[in-house]
Amino acid sequence: MGMIDLHCHILPELDDGARSIGDSVAMARQAHEDGIEAICATPHIRHDHDVHIPEIATRVARLQSTLDAEGIPVRILPGGELAETAARALTPEELCCVSLGRAGAGSETELGAGAGSQTELGGGACGWVLLEPAPGPLSDGLTEVVEHLGALGARVIVAHPERHAPVDLEQRLRSFVEQGCLIQWTAEFVALAQDDDLVLRYAGDGLVHLLASDAHSSLAGRPVRLAAGFDRLREACPEPWVQWMAETAPRAIVAGESVEPPW
To answer: Is pTM beyond 0.90 here?
Structure first.
């Protein structure tokens, strides 16, 4: 089974991601070379980007058609990167539309543990939402937004905490885990980690659940690659943990299923 990239700005000419359809195609080729089978397109849902949520599914389908015509065997799945600062403004229907792999309640995906599963989470039908912390250190505001989204039936993946590290980062991460969140770190950040970097200790302590590329372009910045990050984690975690992070958890997420770490 291939990997799933749960956080990637691959949709062209939309936010600060792929600059053109050619850039998107190049990103998909990069992903395929790395062993990535599917990518959740996660445009920014926040005030400084003019992303119309109802259009995401159509844009995903358009890009998929292009990749199919190019013979690139990578699936594009719907999603969004929901900003902490914008989360309270979304309706439950909009929240479902930006859930990873779901395109709204009742949608099906060809991937996942139990493909096409319609499992609801906590009584809701939205699935998993990728939540971008507000600029600056992780704060109580993010905790409150997680509670708000949970009340609407969504489960939360906290994106790239390495960019929002407060003094009490470990305590904050454990608090989010207690709320039922999963923690997504940037694959390149983990791949480049030194032996004494905190992220490797956090991985061994069960505070790393997912890796994603958060790639924005094939022309510059982070690549659409995950494998090197998982290879680095193998030096800090048991192999079954890494397999769960790389395959089991992402497939369950895009299928809308409940996810529990094995440790």
So the answer is: yes
